[in-house]
Amino acid sequence: MIRKPAVSGLFYEGDATSLKRRIKWCFEHELGPGKLPEKMGHERNIKGVLNPHAGYVYSGPIAAHSVYKIVDDGFPEAFIILCPNHTGLGSGVSTMLEGEWETPLGNVQIDDEFAEKLIETTDIVDPHPAAHIQEHSCEVQIPLLQYFSNDFKIVPICMWMQDLETSFEIGISIKKAAEEIGRDIVLIASSDFTHYQPQDVAYEKDMQVLDAIKSFDERLMIRRVSELNVTMCGYGPVASTIVASKGLGAHKGEIIKYATSGDITGDYSSVVGYASAVFW
């Protein structure tokens, strides 16, 4: 099957020319890296990243920071994209076993071998394409990568269940699947942070969560999200990404950029927090 774009023309431009122009804008924006990567690297040290998933005009410059790092480091064979479930469709944790994802920049194939191996390693992940049909938080990651190359596959994982136990099991299963089939992967945790709070409140809460992420401590991160009532939508995907990244040899987390929607719009009365991080 071909998974058609759900938010093309909404979260990002709907035609290739305008979309490429927007992505270039994200990289060159004052909140972005300030420039496009000069060339594709070949070192391959990055195991995972954290990216926001709002419309490109709001969070694109922040997401561009980790994408810049990925390009500079070199593309893997496959990106394992973990995202929250905003729609309620599908199962507790849903992936897709076959097909392609379409965007204005072309089609990207699902890594069916990895997806099948993932389901073999845990009974917590189900093949439920319905979870992905209208979900934006995985989709918006793909054109940012396609701008630089279409030579990669994806495994989308949509998490309605985001508790620590589930997140830990998914992270371990991803690590096992990658090792068993010898796949070179990078995980992308798709998450925004505090939603619709004043700038100072959002900043104070988000910094405490980001401190736990920087410390590579998934348990502390989830505890702070709960204790501080942080409306972070993808804490499960981030926890799974930390667990899998550590299992694949990452030793540190680096917070590259934090900003809010207020830094784009100038309205700081009710903001959404965005962050970019790298695990290596």
Structural account:
The chain is α/β, with parallel strands linked by helices and 280 residues long. It has one domain: LigB-like (Protocatechuate 4,5-dioxygenase, Chain B), CATH 3.40.830.10. It is built from eleven helices and twelve strands. Strands 2, 3, 4, 7, 8, 9, 10, 11 and 12 form a nine-stranded mixed β-sheet that branches. Strands 1-5-6 form a three-stranded mixed β-sheet. The longest helix has 18 residues.
Output the keywords.
12 strands, 3-stranded mixed sheet, alpha/beta, Protocatechuate 4,5-dioxygenase, Chain B, 280 residues
Give a concise summary.
The chain has 280 residues and is of the alpha/beta class. It contains eleven helices and twelve strands. 42% of the residues lie in helices and 21% in strands.
CATH topology: Protocatechuate 4,5-dioxygenase, Chain B
Give the helices and strands as they follow along the chain.
EHEHEEEEHEHHHEHEEHHHEHE
Secondary structure class reads alpha/beta
Total number of beta strands: 12
Flag low-confidence runs: none
User: What is the CATH homology-level superfamily?
Assistant: LigB-like
What's the tally of helices? 11
* Biggest pleated sheet: 9 strands, mixed
Q: Which CATH class is shown?
A: Alpha Beta
Distance, first to last CA: 34 Å
Q: Whole-number average pLDDT? A: 97
Strand content: 15-25%
Shape-level CATH architecture: 3-Layer(aba) Sandwich
Which geometry do the CA atoms define?
globular
Task: Tell me the count of domains.
Answer: 1
Write the layout of secondary structure elements.
Elements: E1 2-3, H1 16-28, E2 48-51, H2 56-73, E3 78-84, E4 93-95, E5 100-103, E6 106-109, H3 112-121, E7 126-127, H4 130-133, H5 136-139, H6 141-146, E8 153-159, H7 164-181, E9 185-190, E10 195-197, H8 199-214, H9 218-227, H10 235-247, E11 253-260, H11 261-265, E12 271-279
Parallel strand pairs: 1-5, 2-9, 3-8, 3-9, 4-7
Antiparallel strand pairs: 2-12, 4-8, 5-6, 10-12, 11-12
Helix pairs in contact: 1-2, 3-7, 7-10, 8-9, 9-10
